[in-house]
Automatic annotation (TrEMBL):
Descriptive protein name: Ligand-binding sensor domain-containing protein
PANTHER family on file: HYBRID SIGNAL TRANSDUCTION HISTIDINE KINASE C (PTHR43547:SF2), TWO-COMPONENT HISTIDINE KINASE (PTHR43547)
Domain of life per record: Bacteria
Keyword terms of this UniProt record: Membrane, Phosphoprotein, Signal, Transmembrane, Transmembrane helix
Organism expressing this protein natively: Ekhidna lutea
Amino acid sequence: MSSTRTRAMTKRLFYFLVLMASLAVGSFAGPRDFTTVLYNADRDFNGVFIYTIVQDDDGFLWIGSDDGLYRFDGKEMLNLNKKDSAINSLITASTISNDGHVYLGYIQGGISIVEHGRYRKIVSREELPNRIEALKVDDADILWGLTRNQGMVRIENDSVTRYQLPILEELISTDFIVAGNKIFVSTNQGVLEFRIKDGELIPSQFVGGTIGFQANALYLDKDDKNLLWIGTNDGLFRYQINTQKIKLVEGFPDHVRISSISEDDLNTLWVGTFNHGLVEVDLIDGEVDALTYFNTASGFESNEIGEVYVDNENEVWVGTFGRGLVQLNRAYFHHYELYRTINVEGVHSLSNFRDDELLLATDNGLVHVYHKPQRDSLIFDKYQFTTDYSFTCLAVRGEEIWAGTKNKGVVKIDLEAEKVKRVFLDPLDPVQRHLIRDIQFDIEGNIWVSAAGNGVYHLSPEGELLKQYNTRNGFYHNEIFSIFPDRAGNIWFGSHATGLALLQPGEEMKFLTKDGIFPAFDINSIIQDNLGIIWITTAGSGIYSFDGENFKQYTVDEGLLSNYCNAAMVDNIGQIWVGHRLGISLIQPEYDLIRIFNHPSELGETESELNSVVKDVHGNVFFGNPYGITKVNLPHFNFPIIDRETHIKDVRLFFNDVDLLRFTSSDKIDNILPADLTFEHGDNHLSFDFVSINLRKPDAIYYQYTLDGYDRTWSRIDKANSATYTNLDPGTYTFKVKESDHPDHWNDTNYASMTFTIKPPYWRTWWFYLLQITGILLVLYITFILSARLKSQFATRLMVYVSLFILFEYVHTEVEPYLESFTGETPIFQVGTNLLLALVLLPVEIRLSSYLKTRATRKEKIAAAMNKISN
């Protein structure tokens, strides 16, 4: 079969696998790098209209909907409605205090606080009979509330102050922000500014440029506390509080009605609208850089958004009007297929270009990767004047572009003039149809070029040949696959067959593999991480790290996907990403952990080209593939190891939910456990429900647990979030549970615990023991008294033996459970135990029998003497 037909079949197979992978993904793949999850009745959530979303310090998500209040831990949607003592089941506002309490405002008025799960009224509906539109806590931990048209309320230490301002009673208020000593209120006629002075609210002015606009949402920027974002029925405005300058954000549709604004830690605004869905607004220095729309046209659930909230782990939650709750997830990977779109294959090298662009070296020329202003999707443009070149590597410095080719040596590319200029490495070799394997700039600006079969060329910044390294002048090999100038000025060389070499400033070349210092022979790529550690990928020996003194090897035995490592890149938090032929490995050196990703539904294309990888200015990592590129989306953000808090949610008896108030003297409040649970001896079948909150991937958490007083070690590692213990003996126990993102990483000090007691039965209590001992002593005493009066020695002995039998059985019954814990139930041990106990009691029986015999003899003598006297 010809190579052309083979390649065609390979392409068809690749497209089929990509199609199958896309069908296998059940959730909607939205613009750029997101998927969505819809919460509805299938997920135990019956809310349709979402009014408010907030997350507490423990990680629980609180959702106010038309079906009441829900609390979500990633696993369970717990409905907390009016029967749980809330003022009203429809909650329209919520916020979190600085000490972690949840405050709730209601559609018919009133404010309450959730303390450890219990609702407590702060302001009753009778005191504040107007819809609560917004609640906010300022830096002094003072709670502020805004009503629709009856002013504001201030709550400090449960002391309530109402501000019934005439101007607010004439308008319809929707939202507010506390900014220092100012409060901004959005209304149906614009944004009002108030000053806080001596506990009073003093109306100041309307914010210029908003008068007459229906203002719906306000948001104070995370990074710039003088920047206020204003959402109106006519678009989004940015307002500088200190300069009082206002500007309309361009790019939004006409008459877009903004309903909510939030912000994540990636300098991105999330804007909900009443009529155009969700908008992602990327910012650079407070200015809008790109807009991405999530609406029904792009497959999003709804265009009518009521609330947008970004949680503690930067997950975006969208409350819709009519379609329930939507969770917006950042995808971990994104594959860009280039063959069908721009007829490009073989992405052999990638390089950063300009501020936020990429260049790709491919079999079909040079490709420019960028995004247009206010559009967030990547655009791939092929430079048509380069299509005659099959590029293998790139080195970019500003607008200066050096490229290696498969059969035309080194070229310099002038994008402005649209010209490709040949660079002749050796003046004595005018043909130079070399295959170029690598090009690198060192810290002094010099250029290093690896040419197949010709070793390495060292050029000046102007391109003049300084020195050639090949076997003719003592170099160790002519086939150098990787060159790496490190930050200390050293030059590393990696070859196939002869391994690693190092050139240090002012020193002779060191042949590390040849001299037995480095064990691997086939080097593919070399990089340096944030700590200065050198990482070396190999073909067949895994990847090595070098800390300046020692080499450490990572192979499939340590968890690597493959020992054949084509490329590597370090991300912003020091994690190492390794590309293989069949997937990607992630090395997390801080924890000595390795994770692998090799499913087509994740990666789109699993094969990484040799030494084809780059990290862009945002921290994304891109791997070059045979038919496109694979993006690792914000790896520093998406893949860190996080130690989360674990919560013990409930204790069940015999698998059934019970009211734990029956087993405690303290209060048990809405699924929060009391501190002193005490169970009867028969209630000894307990199930513990626990959760570590990972709202993004709740099924990715591993657990271990133990019961002090019962278990000797931690349980096996499992993802199940419940544990059951049966037939627990009376005593005091402590249940402990811990979590982890990775089965090989555990923090033994980060666990949740609860202590409880199982009471003994009445026959194991001290008073019953005392009663038993008293009974036995009474039997012995009666035996002693009666033995002195009975004339029948047989009856006396019978009573003695009955007493001894009772004593024997009592001691045996009490001792047997303890002995069985050591000897088990083996018959020979039980016989030996009984014999030992009999031998212990034998002296008692002998002495008692001797005593009775002596007393009987004495009694006979006394009787004989009395008879003699009477005679």
